[in-house]
Amino acid sequence: MITVESLTRRYAGFTAVDNVSFTAQPGRVTGFLGPNGAGKSTTMRVMVGLTAPTSGSATIDGVRFADLPNPGLEVGVLLDASAQHAGRTGHEILTVAADTMGLPRTRVAEMIELVSLTPTEAKRRVRNYSLGMRQRLGIATALLGDPKVLILDEPANGLDPAGIRWMRDLLRGYANQGGTLLLSSHLLHEIEVIADDLVVIGNGKIVASGTKDELLAAAGTLARSTSPRDLADALQQAGIPSTLAGDGSVRTDADPARVGAVARSAGITLTELRSAEGAGLEDMFLSLTADTQREGVAA
Amino acid sequence: MTATIVPPATTTEGAQVRRTAPPIPITRIVTVELRKMFNTRSGFWMLVSIGVLSVISAGSVLIFAPDSDVTYESFTRASGFPMSVILPMIAILAVTSEWSQRSGLTTFTLVPSRGRVIGAKAIATLLVGLGSVAVAFAVGAVANVAGSALAGVDAVWDISMSMAPQLVLFNLIGMAIGFTLGVVLRNSAGAIVGYFVVSLVLPGILVLLAQVRPWFEDLQPWIDWNETQVALLEGAMDTGEEWAMLGSTTIIWIVIPLLVGLLSLRRSEVK
Protein backbone atom coordinates (compact mmCIF):
# COMPACT_ATOMS: atom_id res chain seq x y z
CA MET A 1 0.00 0.00 0.00
CA ILE A 2 1.16 3.50 -0.81
CA THR A 3 0.25 6.20 1.68
CA VAL A 4 0.74 9.87 0.92
CA GLU A 5 0.07 12.19 3.84
CA SER A 6 -0.17 15.99 3.70
CA LEU A 7 2.57 16.07 1.11
CA THR A 8 3.78 19.52 0.14
CA ARG A 9 6.63 20.46 -2.14
CA ARG A 10 7.41 24.13 -2.60
CA TYR A 11 9.86 25.63 -5.02
CA ALA A 12 11.04 29.20 -4.96
CA GLY A 13 7.87 31.11 -5.73
CA PHE A 14 5.40 28.31 -6.31
CA THR A 15 3.91 25.24 -4.71
CA ALA A 16 4.11 22.23 -6.99
CA VAL A 17 2.38 19.85 -4.59
CA ASP A 18 0.05 21.31 -1.99
CA ASN A 19 -1.04 19.23 0.99
CA VAL A 20 -1.76 16.09 -1.01
CA SER A 21 -3.06 12.99 0.78
CA PHE A 22 -4.27 9.73 -0.71
CA THR A 23 -3.66 6.00 -0.59
CA ALA A 24 -3.22 3.35 -3.23
CA GLN A 25 -4.59 0.02 -2.05
CA PRO A 26 -3.23 -3.47 -2.76
CA GLY A 27 -5.09 -5.40 -5.42
CA ARG A 28 -6.31 -2.20 -7.04
CA VAL A 29 -5.18 0.06 -9.82
CA THR A 30 -5.10 3.67 -8.70
CA GLY A 31 -5.17 6.17 -11.54
CA PHE A 32 -3.42 9.45 -10.93
CA LEU A 33 -4.81 12.15 -13.19
CA GLY A 34 -4.12 15.78 -13.77
CA PRO A 35 -3.27 18.31 -16.46
CA ASN A 36 0.32 19.05 -17.46
CA GLY A 37 2.27 20.53 -14.59
CA ALA A 38 -0.37 19.65 -12.01
CA GLY A 39 2.18 17.99 -9.75
CA LYS A 40 1.78 14.31 -10.67
CA SER A 41 5.40 13.68 -11.50
CA THR A 42 6.66 15.72 -8.56
CA THR A 43 4.43 13.68 -6.23
CA MET A 44 5.77 10.45 -7.73
CA ARG A 45 9.37 11.63 -7.46
CA VAL A 46 8.84 12.44 -3.79
CA MET A 47 7.40 8.93 -3.28
CA VAL A 48 10.59 7.31 -4.51
CA GLY A 49 12.97 9.69 -2.76
CA LEU A 50 14.27 11.54 -5.81
CA THR A 51 12.81 14.81 -4.54
CA ALA A 52 12.69 15.78 -0.89
CA PRO A 53 9.25 16.91 0.35
CA THR A 54 8.96 20.34 1.95
CA SER A 55 6.58 18.77 4.46
CA GLY A 56 4.43 15.68 4.78
CA SER A 57 5.38 12.14 3.90
CA ALA A 58 4.98 9.32 1.44
CA THR A 59 5.39 5.74 2.63
CA ILE A 60 5.29 2.28 1.11
CA ASP A 61 3.64 -0.14 3.57
CA GLY A 62 4.51 2.32 6.32
CA VAL A 63 8.17 2.70 5.38
CA ARG A 64 9.80 5.64 3.66
CA PHE A 65 11.12 4.57 0.27
CA ALA A 66 14.64 5.70 1.14
CA ASP A 67 14.59 3.40 4.19
CA LEU A 68 13.82 0.25 2.20
CA PRO A 69 16.88 -2.01 2.34
CA ASN A 70 16.63 -3.08 -1.29
CA PRO A 71 13.87 -0.97 -2.86
CA GLY A 72 13.99 -2.63 -6.27
CA LEU A 73 12.59 -5.85 -4.73
CA GLU A 74 9.65 -4.04 -3.17
CA VAL A 75 8.73 -1.15 -5.44
CA GLY A 76 8.94 -1.12 -9.22
CA VAL A 77 9.41 2.39 -10.54
CA LEU A 78 9.09 3.85 -14.01
CA LEU A 79 9.17 7.63 -14.02
CA ASP A 80 10.63 8.44 -17.42
CA ALA A 81 11.38 5.81 -20.02
CA SER A 82 13.81 8.13 -21.77
CA ALA A 83 15.94 8.58 -18.67
CA GLN A 84 18.50 5.94 -19.58
CA HIS A 85 22.09 6.12 -20.73
CA ALA A 86 21.73 6.24 -24.52
CA GLY A 87 25.02 4.40 -25.01
CA ARG A 88 23.95 1.29 -23.09
CA THR A 89 22.10 -1.64 -24.61
CA GLY A 90 18.71 -2.60 -23.23
CA HIS A 91 20.21 -5.88 -22.08
CA GLU A 92 22.97 -4.05 -20.19
CA ILE A 93 20.51 -1.73 -18.47
CA LEU A 94 18.57 -4.70 -17.15
CA THR A 95 21.78 -6.51 -16.19
CA VAL A 96 22.98 -3.52 -14.19
CA ALA A 97 19.60 -3.29 -12.42
CA ALA A 98 19.53 -7.05 -11.72
CA ASP A 99 23.07 -6.93 -10.34
CA THR A 100 22.20 -4.01 -8.10
CA MET A 101 19.22 -5.87 -6.67
CA GLY A 102 21.24 -9.06 -6.34
CA LEU A 103 19.05 -11.04 -8.73
CA PRO A 104 20.23 -13.91 -10.93
CA ARG A 105 21.10 -12.88 -14.48
CA THR A 106 18.49 -15.31 -15.84
CA ARG A 107 15.91 -12.76 -14.72
CA VAL A 108 17.12 -10.39 -17.46
CA ALA A 109 16.21 -12.69 -20.35
CA GLU A 110 12.88 -13.50 -18.68
CA MET A 111 11.99 -9.82 -18.47
CA ILE A 112 13.07 -9.12 -22.05
CA GLU A 113 10.74 -11.85 -23.17
CA LEU A 114 7.93 -10.67 -20.89
CA VAL A 115 7.91 -7.19 -22.41
CA SER A 116 8.19 -8.62 -25.96
CA LEU A 117 11.53 -7.12 -26.89
CA THR A 118 13.38 -9.42 -29.27
CA PRO A 119 16.89 -10.57 -28.28
CA THR A 120 18.26 -8.55 -31.22
CA GLU A 121 16.51 -5.42 -29.98
CA ALA A 122 17.82 -6.03 -26.49
CA LYS A 123 21.37 -5.94 -27.85
CA ARG A 124 20.83 -2.57 -29.50
CA ARG A 125 21.74 0.65 -27.75
CA VAL A 126 18.91 2.62 -26.20
CA ARG A 127 19.85 5.58 -28.40
CA ASN A 128 18.26 3.63 -31.27
CA TYR A 129 15.08 2.68 -29.41
CA SER A 130 11.68 4.10 -30.23
CA LEU A 131 9.69 5.58 -27.36
CA GLY A 132 7.54 2.45 -27.27
CA MET A 133 10.61 0.22 -26.95
CA ARG A 134 11.99 2.42 -24.17
CA GLN A 135 8.64 2.17 -22.44
CA ARG A 136 8.82 -1.64 -22.62
CA LEU A 137 12.37 -1.59 -21.29
CA GLY A 138 11.25 0.68 -18.46
CA ILE A 139 8.44 -1.74 -17.56
CA ALA A 140 10.95 -4.61 -17.63
CA THR A 141 13.19 -2.70 -15.22
CA ALA A 142 10.27 -1.96 -12.92
CA LEU A 143 9.09 -5.58 -12.85
CA LEU A 144 12.59 -7.07 -12.56
CA GLY A 145 12.59 -7.46 -8.78
CA ASP A 146 9.04 -8.90 -8.72
CA PRO A 147 7.86 -6.02 -6.51
CA LYS A 148 4.53 -5.83 -4.71
CA VAL A 149 4.12 -2.14 -5.51
CA LEU A 150 4.39 -0.45 -8.89
CA ILE A 151 4.69 3.31 -9.48
CA LEU A 152 4.41 4.14 -13.16
CA ASP A 153 4.38 7.59 -14.73
CA GLU A 154 2.68 7.59 -18.14
CA PRO A 155 3.53 3.95 -18.97
CA ALA A 156 1.31 3.84 -22.06
CA ASN A 157 3.04 6.85 -23.59
CA GLY A 158 4.42 6.02 -27.03
CA LEU A 159 2.98 2.51 -27.23
CA ASP A 160 1.07 1.40 -30.30
CA PRO A 161 -2.54 0.16 -29.88
CA ALA A 162 -1.44 -3.45 -29.52
CA GLY A 163 1.17 -2.34 -27.00
CA ILE A 164 -1.42 -0.41 -25.02
CA ARG A 165 -3.66 -3.48 -24.91
CA TRP A 166 -0.71 -5.60 -23.82
CA MET A 167 0.24 -3.11 -21.10
CA ARG A 168 -3.34 -2.97 -19.86
CA ASP A 169 -3.59 -6.75 -19.56
CA LEU A 170 -0.21 -6.96 -17.85
CA LEU A 171 -1.09 -4.30 -15.29
CA ARG A 172 -4.58 -5.66 -14.69
CA GLY A 173 -3.11 -9.10 -14.04
CA TYR A 174 -0.58 -7.57 -11.70
CA ALA A 175 -3.27 -5.87 -9.62
CA ASN A 176 -5.45 -8.99 -9.64
CA GLN A 177 -2.58 -10.89 -8.04
CA GLY A 178 -2.67 -8.44 -5.15
CA GLY A 179 -0.17 -5.89 -6.35
CA THR A 180 -0.51 -2.20 -5.56
CA LEU A 181 -0.42 -0.10 -8.68
CA LEU A 182 -0.23 3.67 -8.99
CA LEU A 183 -0.50 4.82 -12.55
CA SER A 184 -0.45 8.31 -13.94
CA SER A 185 -1.62 9.11 -17.41
CA HIS A 186 -3.00 11.78 -19.66
CA LEU A 187 -4.65 9.06 -21.72
CA LEU A 188 -8.01 9.26 -20.02
CA HIS A 189 -9.45 6.35 -21.91
CA GLU A 190 -6.60 4.15 -20.66
CA ILE A 191 -7.16 5.16 -17.08
CA GLU A 192 -10.89 4.69 -17.42
CA VAL A 193 -10.48 1.18 -18.71
CA ILE A 194 -7.95 0.02 -16.14
CA ALA A 195 -8.30 2.05 -12.95
CA ASP A 196 -10.34 1.02 -9.92
CA ASP A 197 -9.65 4.17 -7.95
CA LEU A 198 -8.96 7.68 -9.14
CA VAL A 199 -7.02 10.57 -7.70
CA VAL A 200 -7.41 13.82 -9.65
CA ILE A 201 -4.90 16.58 -9.05
CA GLY A 202 -4.90 20.15 -10.35
CA ASN A 203 -2.48 22.95 -9.48
CA GLY A 204 -0.87 20.71 -6.91
CA LYS A 205 -4.09 20.09 -4.99
CA ILE A 206 -6.30 17.02 -4.94
CA VAL A 207 -9.58 17.99 -6.58
CA ALA A 208 -11.26 14.59 -6.36
CA SER A 209 -10.49 11.09 -5.21
CA GLY A 210 -12.48 7.92 -4.74
CA THR A 211 -13.45 4.82 -6.63
CA LYS A 212 -13.96 5.22 -10.33
CA ASP A 213 -17.61 4.20 -10.02
CA GLU A 214 -18.33 6.84 -7.40
CA LEU A 215 -16.62 9.58 -9.33
CA LEU A 216 -18.19 8.69 -12.64
CA ALA A 217 -21.65 8.30 -11.13
CA ALA A 218 -21.36 11.95 -10.29
CA ALA A 219 -20.82 12.60 -13.95
CA GLY A 220 -24.57 12.21 -14.57
CA THR A 221 -26.61 10.96 -17.48
CA LEU A 222 -26.42 11.11 -21.21
CA ALA A 223 -29.62 10.85 -23.23
CA ARG A 224 -30.38 10.98 -26.93
CA SER A 225 -33.72 11.52 -28.42
CA THR A 226 -35.31 11.97 -31.81
CA SER A 227 -36.08 15.51 -30.64
CA PRO A 228 -33.31 16.58 -28.30
CA ARG A 229 -34.59 20.14 -27.88
CA ASP A 230 -37.94 18.88 -26.62
CA LEU A 231 -36.16 16.62 -24.20
CA ALA A 232 -34.08 19.51 -22.88
CA ASP A 233 -37.22 21.60 -22.49
CA ALA A 234 -39.06 18.81 -20.70
CA LEU A 235 -36.15 18.36 -18.30
CA GLN A 236 -36.08 22.10 -17.78
CA GLN A 237 -39.75 22.09 -16.83
CA ALA A 238 -39.18 19.20 -14.45
CA GLY A 239 -36.57 21.36 -12.73
CA ILE A 240 -33.58 19.36 -14.00
CA PRO A 241 -30.83 21.50 -15.49
CA SER A 242 -29.37 19.98 -18.62
CA THR A 243 -27.08 20.86 -21.45
CA LEU A 244 -27.75 20.21 -25.09
CA ALA A 245 -24.54 19.20 -26.79
CA GLY A 246 -23.79 19.89 -30.43
CA ASP A 247 -24.04 16.19 -31.32
CA GLY A 248 -27.67 16.11 -30.23
CA SER A 249 -27.05 14.46 -26.87
CA VAL A 250 -28.50 15.84 -23.66
CA ARG A 251 -26.44 15.72 -20.50
CA THR A 252 -27.63 16.22 -16.98
CA ASP A 253 -26.57 15.56 -13.43
CA ALA A 254 -29.78 13.66 -12.68
CA ASP A 255 -29.70 9.86 -12.71
CA PRO A 256 -30.95 7.93 -15.76
CA ALA A 257 -34.20 6.75 -14.07
CA ARG A 258 -35.41 10.33 -13.56
CA VAL A 259 -34.50 11.35 -17.07
CA GLY A 260 -36.38 8.32 -18.41
CA ALA A 261 -39.46 9.15 -16.33
CA VAL A 262 -39.46 12.76 -17.54
CA ALA A 263 -39.13 11.65 -21.14
CA ARG A 264 -41.99 9.17 -20.80
CA SER A 265 -44.39 11.63 -19.21
CA ALA A 266 -43.49 14.17 -21.92
CA GLY A 267 -44.04 11.55 -24.59
CA ILE A 268 -40.53 11.85 -25.97
CA THR A 269 -38.90 8.87 -27.62
CA LEU A 270 -35.43 8.16 -26.25
CA THR A 271 -32.91 6.52 -28.55
CA GLU A 272 -30.20 6.26 -25.90
CA LEU A 273 -30.17 6.58 -22.15
CA ARG A 274 -27.19 5.79 -19.99
CA SER A 275 -25.01 7.13 -17.25
CA ALA A 276 -22.51 9.38 -18.92
CA GLU A 277 -19.70 6.96 -18.35
CA GLY A 278 -18.34 6.73 -21.85
CA ALA A 279 -17.23 10.29 -22.11
CA GLY A 280 -17.61 10.69 -18.38
CA LEU A 281 -14.02 10.63 -17.32
CA GLU A 282 -13.05 13.24 -19.81
CA ASP A 283 -15.90 15.50 -18.76
CA MET A 284 -15.18 14.91 -15.12
CA PHE A 285 -11.51 15.57 -15.67
CA LEU A 286 -12.13 18.78 -17.55
CA SER A 287 -14.72 20.09 -15.12
CA LEU A 288 -12.67 19.20 -12.03
CA THR A 289 -9.54 20.73 -13.41
CA ALA A 290 -11.23 23.59 -15.27
CA ASP A 291 -9.66 26.22 -13.01
CA THR A 292 -6.25 24.78 -13.63
CA GLN A 293 -6.41 24.09 -17.35
CA ARG A 294 -4.14 26.11 -19.55
CA GLU A 295 -6.79 26.33 -22.23
CA GLY A 296 -9.44 27.51 -19.79
CA VAL A 297 -11.93 24.88 -20.97
CA ALA A 298 -15.44 25.66 -19.75
CA ALA A 299 -16.84 23.00 -17.47
CA MET B 1 -10.31 -31.12 31.74
CA THR B 2 -9.18 -27.56 31.60
CA ALA B 3 -7.74 -26.08 28.52
CA THR B 4 -5.51 -23.11 28.51
CA ILE B 5 -6.46 -20.75 25.83
CA VAL B 6 -3.40 -19.21 24.37
CA PRO B 7 -4.18 -15.77 23.06
CA PRO B 8 -3.10 -15.32 19.50
CA ALA B 9 0.22 -13.60 19.21
CA THR B 10 -0.36 -9.94 18.72
CA THR B 11 2.36 -9.51 16.18
CA THR B 12 1.72 -8.63 12.60
CA GLU B 13 -2.05 -8.70 12.56
CA GLY B 14 -3.18 -6.35 9.84
CA ALA B 15 0.31 -5.39 8.85
CA GLN B 16 1.45 -6.58 5.48
CA VAL B 17 3.83 -9.47 5.33
CA ARG B 18 7.10 -7.88 4.34
CA ARG B 19 9.94 -9.55 2.61
CA THR B 20 12.91 -8.74 4.77
CA ALA B 21 15.43 -8.11 2.08
CA PRO B 22 19.01 -7.74 3.25
CA PRO B 23 20.48 -4.34 2.48
CA ILE B 24 22.58 -3.97 -0.66
CA PRO B 25 26.25 -4.46 0.26
CA ILE B 26 28.67 -1.73 -0.79
CA THR B 27 30.85 -4.29 -2.60
CA ARG B 28 27.94 -5.01 -4.92
CA ILE B 29 27.40 -1.32 -5.65
CA VAL B 30 31.12 -0.92 -6.40
CA THR B 31 31.01 -3.87 -8.81
CA VAL B 32 27.95 -2.43 -10.54
CA GLU B 33 29.53 1.03 -10.78
CA LEU B 34 32.70 -0.48 -12.26
CA ARG B 35 30.60 -2.23 -14.87
CA LYS B 36 28.71 0.98 -15.63
CA MET B 37 31.96 2.81 -16.31
CA PHE B 38 32.70 0.56 -19.26
CA ASN B 39 29.41 -0.82 -20.57
CA THR B 40 28.54 2.29 -22.55
CA ARG B 41 29.96 3.00 -25.96
CA SER B 42 32.04 5.95 -24.73
CA GLY B 43 33.22 4.08 -21.63
CA PHE B 44 34.23 1.05 -23.66
CA TRP B 45 36.29 3.08 -26.12
CA MET B 46 37.97 5.04 -23.37
CA LEU B 47 39.06 1.77 -21.80
CA VAL B 48 40.29 0.47 -25.14
CA SER B 49 42.09 3.72 -25.88
CA ILE B 50 43.97 3.54 -22.58
CA GLY B 51 45.35 0.16 -23.57
CA VAL B 52 46.02 1.00 -27.22
CA LEU B 53 47.49 4.46 -26.63
CA SER B 54 49.82 3.31 -23.87
CA VAL B 55 51.23 0.62 -26.17
CA ILE B 56 51.54 3.08 -29.09
CA SER B 57 53.12 5.67 -26.83
CA ALA B 58 55.67 3.21 -25.42
CA GLY B 59 56.25 1.87 -28.94
CA SER B 60 57.07 5.33 -30.28
CA VAL B 61 59.77 5.73 -27.64
CA LEU B 62 61.11 2.39 -28.80
CA ILE B 63 61.31 3.64 -32.38
CA PHE B 64 62.31 7.27 -32.05
CA ALA B 65 64.21 7.64 -28.78
CA PRO B 66 68.04 7.54 -28.72
CA ASP B 67 69.67 4.57 -27.01
CA SER B 68 70.36 6.64 -23.92
CA ASP B 69 66.60 6.97 -23.41
CA VAL B 70 65.96 3.25 -23.55
CA THR B 71 65.17 3.07 -19.87
CA TYR B 72 62.31 1.77 -17.77
CA GLU B 73 61.47 5.31 -16.70
CA SER B 74 61.01 6.73 -20.18
CA PHE B 75 58.94 3.76 -21.34
CA THR B 76 56.68 3.86 -18.29
CA ARG B 77 56.34 7.62 -18.49
CA ALA B 78 55.42 7.34 -22.17
CA SER B 79 52.88 4.56 -21.68
CA GLY B 80 51.35 6.42 -18.74
CA PHE B 81 51.09 9.72 -20.57
CA PRO B 82 47.78 9.07 -22.41
CA MET B 83 46.29 7.94 -19.12
CA SER B 84 46.93 11.25 -17.44
CA VAL B 85 44.43 12.73 -19.91
CA ILE B 86 41.92 9.88 -20.17
CA LEU B 87 41.67 8.84 -16.52
CA PRO B 88 40.24 12.20 -15.35
CA MET B 89 37.66 11.97 -18.15
CA ILE B 90 36.64 8.51 -16.94
CA ALA B 91 36.32 9.86 -13.40
CA ILE B 92 34.21 12.80 -14.62
CA LEU B 93 31.84 10.68 -16.69
CA ALA B 94 31.43 8.10 -13.92
CA VAL B 95 29.64 10.80 -11.94
CA THR B 96 28.13 13.16 -14.49
CA SER B 97 26.52 10.58 -16.80
CA GLU B 98 23.93 9.89 -14.09
CA TRP B 99 22.73 13.45 -14.62
CA SER B 100 23.62 14.23 -18.22
CA GLN B 101 22.26 10.88 -19.43
CA ARG B 102 19.60 10.89 -16.70
CA SER B 103 20.33 7.30 -15.72
CA GLY B 104 20.40 8.61 -12.14
CA LEU B 105 16.64 8.25 -12.09
CA THR B 106 17.10 4.48 -12.07
CA THR B 107 20.33 4.41 -10.08
CA PHE B 108 19.00 6.46 -7.20
CA THR B 109 15.69 4.62 -7.02
CA LEU B 110 17.50 1.28 -6.81
CA VAL B 111 19.94 2.68 -4.22
CA PRO B 112 18.28 5.66 -2.53
CA SER B 113 21.35 6.54 -0.47
CA ARG B 114 23.20 8.89 -2.78
CA GLY B 115 26.19 8.97 -0.47
CA ARG B 116 26.65 5.22 -0.94
CA VAL B 117 26.36 5.48 -4.72
CA ILE B 118 28.90 8.31 -4.92
CA GLY B 119 31.16 6.49 -2.45
CA ALA B 120 30.97 3.36 -4.60
CA LYS B 121 31.81 5.44 -7.66
CA ALA B 122 34.82 6.88 -5.84
CA ILE B 123 36.07 3.39 -4.96
CA ALA B 124 35.46 2.16 -8.51
CA THR B 125 37.34 5.19 -9.88
CA LEU B 126 40.24 4.50 -7.52
CA LEU B 127 40.37 0.87 -8.66
CA VAL B 128 40.39 1.90 -12.31
CA GLY B 129 43.19 4.38 -11.57
CA LEU B 130 45.31 1.79 -9.79
CA GLY B 131 44.63 -0.78 -12.50
CA SER B 132 45.57 1.62 -15.29
CA VAL B 133 48.81 2.69 -13.63
CA ALA B 134 49.66 -0.98 -13.14
CA VAL B 135 49.13 -1.41 -16.89
CA ALA B 136 51.47 1.53 -17.54
CA PHE B 137 54.18 -0.08 -15.43
CA ALA B 138 53.64 -3.44 -17.10
CA VAL B 139 53.69 -2.01 -20.64
CA GLY B 140 56.76 0.01 -19.69
CA ALA B 141 58.52 -3.14 -18.44
CA VAL B 142 57.69 -5.13 -21.58
CA ALA B 143 58.80 -2.24 -23.79
CA ASN B 144 61.98 -1.85 -21.78
CA VAL B 145 62.91 -5.52 -22.21
CA ALA B 146 62.05 -5.40 -25.91
CA GLY B 147 63.70 -2.00 -26.40
CA SER B 148 66.98 -2.86 -24.74
CA ALA B 149 67.16 -6.13 -26.68
CA LEU B 150 66.55 -4.32 -29.97
CA ALA B 151 69.04 -1.57 -29.18
CA GLY B 152 71.51 -4.13 -27.99
CA VAL B 153 72.01 -2.42 -24.62
CA ASP B 154 71.50 -3.62 -21.08
CA ALA B 155 67.99 -3.00 -19.73
CA VAL B 156 67.99 -0.04 -17.35
CA TRP B 157 65.55 -0.37 -14.44
CA ASP B 158 65.67 3.18 -13.16
CA ILE B 159 62.37 3.70 -11.39
CA SER B 160 63.09 3.91 -7.69
CA MET B 161 60.76 2.87 -4.91
CA SER B 162 60.17 6.52 -4.06
CA MET B 163 59.35 7.45 -7.63
CA ALA B 164 56.74 4.77 -8.33
CA PRO B 165 54.23 5.84 -5.66
CA GLN B 166 54.57 9.44 -6.84
CA LEU B 167 53.64 8.42 -10.36
CA VAL B 168 50.62 6.56 -8.96
CA LEU B 169 49.65 9.56 -6.86
CA PHE B 170 50.00 11.84 -9.87
CA ASN B 171 47.33 9.89 -11.75
CA LEU B 172 45.05 9.50 -8.76
CA ILE B 173 45.09 13.24 -8.08
CA GLY B 174 44.18 13.95 -11.69
CA MET B 175 41.25 11.54 -11.33
CA ALA B 176 40.25 13.07 -8.00
CA ILE B 177 40.13 16.53 -9.59
CA GLY B 178 37.92 15.14 -12.36
CA PHE B 179 35.71 13.31 -9.89
CA THR B 180 35.34 16.47 -7.80
CA LEU B 181 34.38 18.52 -10.85
CA GLY B 182 31.84 15.85 -11.72
CA VAL B 183 30.28 15.94 -8.26
CA VAL B 184 30.21 19.75 -8.18
CA LEU B 185 28.95 20.40 -11.73
CA ARG B 186 26.97 17.19 -12.43
CA ASN B 187 27.14 17.90 -16.14
CA SER B 188 29.45 16.03 -18.53
CA ALA B 189 30.30 18.87 -20.90
CA GLY B 190 30.65 21.41 -18.12
CA ALA B 191 32.91 19.18 -16.04
CA ILE B 192 35.17 18.30 -18.97
CA VAL B 193 35.55 21.95 -19.94
CA GLY B 194 36.08 22.72 -16.26
CA TYR B 195 38.84 20.14 -16.09
CA PHE B 196 40.74 21.75 -18.95
CA VAL B 197 40.26 25.16 -17.41
CA VAL B 198 41.72 24.15 -14.04
CA SER B 199 44.50 22.06 -15.57
CA LEU B 200 45.51 24.20 -18.58
CA VAL B 201 44.17 27.75 -18.22
CA LEU B 202 44.35 28.30 -14.50
CA PRO B 203 48.09 27.51 -14.03
CA GLY B 204 48.99 30.12 -16.66
CA ILE B 205 46.89 32.74 -14.91
CA LEU B 206 48.38 31.91 -11.52
CA VAL B 207 51.93 32.03 -12.90
CA LEU B 208 51.21 35.36 -14.56
CA LEU B 209 49.75 36.69 -11.35
CA ALA B 210 52.84 35.58 -9.46
CA GLN B 211 55.01 37.46 -11.94
CA VAL B 212 53.18 40.77 -11.70
CA ARG B 213 52.33 40.65 -8.00
CA PRO B 214 55.42 39.75 -5.97
CA TRP B 215 53.44 39.01 -2.80
CA PHE B 216 51.66 36.21 -4.69
CA GLU B 217 54.87 34.56 -5.81
CA ASP B 218 55.40 32.66 -2.56
CA LEU B 219 51.72 31.84 -2.32
CA GLN B 220 51.32 30.47 -5.84
CA PRO B 221 52.69 26.91 -5.30
CA TRP B 222 50.35 26.55 -2.33
CA ILE B 223 47.36 27.27 -4.55
CA ASP B 224 48.36 25.93 -7.97
CA TRP B 225 47.80 22.18 -7.94
CA ASN B 226 49.64 21.74 -11.23
CA GLU B 227 52.85 22.86 -9.59
CA THR B 228 52.88 19.82 -7.30
CA GLN B 229 51.57 17.60 -10.09
CA VAL B 230 54.67 18.37 -12.14
CA ALA B 231 56.88 17.48 -9.17
CA LEU B 232 54.96 14.22 -8.67
CA LEU B 233 55.30 13.32 -12.34
CA GLU B 234 59.06 13.83 -12.12
CA GLY B 235 59.12 11.76 -8.97
CA ALA B 236 60.89 14.73 -7.43
CA MET B 237 58.86 15.36 -4.30
CA ASP B 238 61.32 15.08 -1.47
CA THR B 239 60.95 17.99 0.92
CA GLY B 240 58.35 18.29 3.65
CA GLU B 241 57.40 21.68 2.27
CA GLU B 242 56.49 20.14 -1.10
CA TRP B 243 54.26 17.58 0.56
CA ALA B 244 52.68 20.38 2.61
CA MET B 245 52.01 22.24 -0.66
CA LEU B 246 50.38 19.10 -2.04
CA GLY B 247 48.22 18.96 1.10
CA SER B 248 47.24 22.58 0.65
CA THR B 249 46.31 22.26 -3.03
CA THR B 250 44.43 19.03 -2.28
CA ILE B 251 42.35 20.79 0.36
CA ILE B 252 41.64 23.74 -1.94
CA TRP B 253 40.88 21.84 -5.14
CA ILE B 254 39.57 18.49 -3.90
CA VAL B 255 38.49 18.32 -0.26
CA ILE B 256 36.52 21.56 0.07
CA PRO B 257 34.73 21.48 -3.32
CA LEU B 258 34.00 17.78 -2.90
CA LEU B 259 32.35 18.36 0.48
CA VAL B 260 30.30 21.26 -0.84
CA GLY B 261 29.36 19.27 -3.97
CA LEU B 262 28.35 16.21 -1.92
CA LEU B 263 26.14 18.28 0.37
CA SER B 264 24.29 19.85 -2.54
CA LEU B 265 24.16 16.54 -4.43
CA ARG B 266 22.48 14.77 -1.52
CA ARG B 267 19.76 17.39 -1.32
CA SER B 268 19.31 18.10 -4.99
CA GLU B 269 16.43 16.81 -7.04
CA VAL B 270 17.12 14.01 -9.51
CA LYS B 271 15.15 14.76 -12.64
TrEMBL record, chain A:
Keywords: ATP-binding, Nucleotide-binding, Transport
Transmembrane parts of this sequence: none
PROSITE patterns linked: ABC_TRANSPORTER_1, ABC_TRANSPORTER_2
Residues of the ABC transporter domain: 2-228
Alphabetical list of InterPro entries matching this protein: AAA+_ATPase (IPR003593), ABC_transporter-like_ATP-bd (IPR003439), ABC_transporter-like_CS (IPR017871), P-loop_NTPase (IPR027417)
SUPFAM superfamilies: P-loop containing nucleoside triphosphate hydrolases
Single GO MF descriptor: ATP hydrolysis activity
Pfam families per record: ABC_tran (PF00005)
Similarity section: Belongs to the ABC transporter superfamily.
Name by which UniProt lists this protein: ABC transporter
Taxonomic lineage: Bacteria, Bacillati, Actinomycetota, Actinomycetes, Micrococcales
From TrEMBL, chain B:
Keywords for the protein's UniProt record, in alphabetical order: Membrane, Transmembrane, Transmembrane helix
Regions crossing the membrane: 44-66, 78-97, 118-143, 163-185, 192-212, 243-265
Top-rank taxon: Bacteria
Protein's recorded name: ABC transporter permease
Organism: Knoellia aerolata DSM 18566
